[in-house]
Amino acid sequence: MVTRAMIRNSSLTSQSDVLRLAIPSKGILEDDTIGFLRGCGLPVDRSNPRQYRARLATLTGVEVTFQRASDIFAQVDEGNVELGITGYDIVAECRAEDDRVVVLMPELGFSQCSLVLAVPETWIDVWSIHDVAEICVSRRSKGQELRVATKYPNLARQYLYDHGVNYFMLVESSGALEAGPALGSADVIADLTSTGVTLRENRLKTVAGGTILTSEACLIANREELAKSPSKLERTRLVLEAMEAYLRARPFLSLTANVQGGTAESVARKIIAHGDVAGLRGPTVARVFPKSADDDEWFAVTVIVAENRLQEAVDALRRAGALDITSVRLSYVFESKAWSFEGLVRSLHGERADGGRG
Amino acid sequence: MEPLEITRVRGTNDVVPPSRAHQQSLEERLRDVFALYGYEPIDTPVLEPTDLFLRKSGEEIVARMYSFTHWNRNVCLRPEFTASVVRAYVSHLQDRPLPVRVQYAGPTFRYEKPQRMRHRQFTQVGIECIGADGPAADAEVLAAARHGIEAIGLKDWRVVIGHLGAVLQLLAQMGMEPHAQTLIIGAMEHLSRAPGEAGRVVQRLAALLGGDVVAGADESAGEDLVELLRSFGQDGATRVAAELLERANLRLEGGTRPPGEIIERLLHKAFRPDPTPALRRAIDFITRLQDLAGPPHETVPALRQLLAEFKLEDGPVREVERALECFDAYFDSPAPVQVDLSLARGLRYYTGLVFEIYDGEDNQLAGGGRYNDLVRALGGRGNVPACGFQYGLERVVAAVEREMAAPERVPAVAALVVPVDPKDYAAAARLAAALRAAGVASELDLRFRGLKANLRHADRERIPIVLFVGEKERSEGVVGLRDMRVFEEARLAPEDVVATVRRRLEAGVPSVAGPVG
Hints:
The complex is a heterodimer. Chain A has 13 helices and 16 strands. Chain A is an alpha+beta fold. In chain A, strands 2-3-4-1-5-12-6 form a seven-stranded mixed β-sheet, with helices on both faces. A five-stranded mixed β-sheet of chain A has the order 9-8-10-7-11. A four-stranded antiparallel β-sheet of chain A has the order 14-15-13-16, covered by helices on one side. In chain A, α6 (153-162) links the parallel β8 (146-150) and β9. The longest helix of chain A has 20 residues, at 230-249. In chain B, α17 links the parallel β12 and β13. Chain B has helices at residues 19-36, 51-56, 59-62, 82-93, 134-151, 165-173, 178-193, 198-208, 217-230, 234-247, 259-271, 276-291, 296-309, 315-329, 374-377, 393-403, 425-437, 451-461, 471-476, 497-507; strands at residues 40-41, 47-49, 67-70, 73-77, 100-109, 121-130, 157-163, 337-339, 353-359, 364-370, 386-392, 415-419, 442-444, 465-469, 479-483, 488-492. In chain B, α1 crosses α16. In chain B, the strands form three sheets. Chain B has an eight-stranded mixed β-sheet with strand order 1-5-6-11-10-9-7-8. A five-stranded mixed β-sheet of chain B has the order 13-12-14-15-16, sandwiched between helices. By secondary structure, chain B is an alpha+beta fold. Classes of the chains: A alpha+beta, B alpha+beta.
């Protein structure tokens, strides 16, 4: 719970100790990020929606700033903010070998999309990236370049080189890329897609092997700024703990059921025998004190199951004789450590321990 | 707040004193050797149009270029010299009598993963011999390369000689398209580094040539269509495709390719054979060439047999043999030579003999070869055969430093002139000017450190002669001299200083930075 006192306290913290977190200021990405932070137990407390600064209601000493998603990488790299949430596509495009950015969590579980190479639907002779490479070669013999419209010149260039496409021109377009082929300003495009609807509407299709990058929202940090300040590092640990525990909990449900039996041991054995519902480590069995004394021994069994196996688990519990099966969503699962924080600490000691990708 | 230090760009190097002096002297010795063969200096811009290297240099190098768009023009930092030199030849030197012999040295740039002996900026020192064909010219370039290596005193080195003719002949015999040929030549270099990967290379190339398909749902649909069209025969398929599209009201307009081109390519794809068997044969041939690599007397007969087995002319082997004969004529002792017809260099414009020189630790010091198509590809008049090679200067320096004791620290100057007090500055400056006019490199103390500190400085930097003017000297109208090598002091009349210093430098312990001219 956030209290007025906490907010007062946080305003007392000296400015140089405040951990700054940049989040997207527009559209679905903004809504999803705010929703994600709320889910993590770090709700954003903004006095009014036009404000570009806010606080985390439950964690003092953190300032949230709203920025354009495309600017957040540079803001973090330059050290104007220590943490940022933005699309992995932007991070991958903006990275430099000597940048100061570390990807703390590559997959925050929202804003999923892919950067793909798309060609006109009318190219019925093209169904893989190798066809594109071949067309590029035959154009080259006529002295023409394949024109590729994209907002991701670095990723597109590297991808094309890696696939034997060397003679091309990148058309950097800031407007509606998808219209390029129809308007004749580009031959193919490299653009983001999440559902494929926009591509289809513009009579474009993806090609086999044409996924340049899969992306979702990620958390990045400036390693040098964090290395300088133990208090910012500690706040970063708290943020990471909350995000990890939330993401870890999301696929799971907690099931509780009443089972009749002789002893706690025999009930536990019955549940374990139906292995599917044994939970993360094993069932928790607790004595139930019935309302009427003449009832037999009853026990409450609690297990954790993956959401996509809920129905199986319910059936298994029934077979074990369970009644009154209830389910609650887990909010958080904490492990012994925040693993992404361990990675960050290693990275501050010189290892480049990025969060898995890139 | 203190301003942050700015570090150099990754993969580049500062060459600071005294390393630069050593590097420069090696560069000059290599270039002096080139001059002995009649190669005249040429220089070309570091910045070139990107197109220059797209023409013929090959995929690998294009993907590693520093290229960028500046005010809507595609430019790049040159990744190598040969294409630039040929471009310059085409614009300025085509009317000269052939061959045109030029030499150059300068920085080149490639965006590669920096590692030991591999930097993103490196210095090439090389020659191009434009307008001479055959073993005689190949041998001259080889001889100049060996001559330079020996001139700088390297003992532990070897030459690997190859010839692209064998592989190119096989590819032409199998009717491979130019694109496929380029890809295979590109794979040769990879194979030489990772010999066990022949199978993987075939697979990758087959995929790039549209033979093997990437797994995916779209693929199988495409394959079915191709199967179906194939069953109609070529003519039938064209008619069927056109009619189907018309009836389905499927218009192919709207993209940037004309519908005719799309149908034509679709059918071309349907009817062309799977490239995999041809690729397998080519890669098998390359692997066997590689297995045969060795000293000429062993390798050459075995190569003849292999070429006969593949029904190929032995022209390339004969050319290597004759080039080696010519090469041997230049020197009293035979060179450590290995023949390896699977040798392919990182560049795609080579057409004939190619070679590389390695040091004792297998670092490549130099490489080059014959490129008979490049002049025409860059817009030159007619077929002008050419060949050339380059040293990688940084690697040459490293090899020299490894093989030989570190060069003795050479003092930057022969004399140190010390004004003891600012009042003595004018007299000291006049003295230094007189020495310099006589060709004696002289350092003038600018910090007025006093005589004692200056003597320490001279001792540390091994400056042989110290001249000083202080209060005493000023009042007596003389100049003090200390010969650091023999701990002698003298007092000289100003007009005698230059002659005395020169005499001492000429007579005394030899000093590199002594009088010149």
